[in-house]
Design goal:
Elements: H1 2-14, H2 16-34, H3 42-55, H4 58-70, H5 72-119
Helix pairs in contact: 2-3, 2-4, 4-5
């Protein structure tokens, strides 16, 4: 409860645009950590946690900015579209990316394995 209260004050202080910028920066740091070619899975696991942490402020800030960006009249429809898109993405993207991984993943793994050995 205390963390939510503190994060509310911080978000009001920083503003939506700054929260989005900070979130995207944190996501990029996590993505770079995942991309480090090491034998251990620990940097990738930490990177995925950092990516998720970076995504945290982006979605609520985008929804909060809808009335400012699109006007009061259209904000409800825009927020509904944002929510529908997010739910559709979380429903279908795992299946789509799973199929992509199944089709081309082995080629990528083979390429990454050889590039990893050349780095060492």
């Amino acid at each position: 409860m205390k963390r939510k209260l503190i994060s509310g004050f911080v978000s009001n202080r920083l503003g939506d645009r700054m929260l989005i910028r900070i979130g995207i920066f944190v996501e990029v740091v996590g993505i770079l950590l995942v991309m480090i070619p090491v034998a251990s899975f620990i940097p990738a696991a930490i990177g995925f946690v950092i990516i998720g942490t970076g995504m945290g402020p982006v979605y609520p800030a985008i929804q909060h900015m809808a009335p400012t960006n699109f006007g009061e009249r259209y904000s409800a429809a825009v927020i509904g579209l944002q929510m529908a898109s997010a739910y559709m993405g979380s429903t279908f993207m795992p299946m789509i990316f799973g199929n992509i991984q199944e089709k081309i993943g082995f080629l990528l793994q083979k390429h990454l394995r050889y590039s990893h050995h050349s780095i060492q």
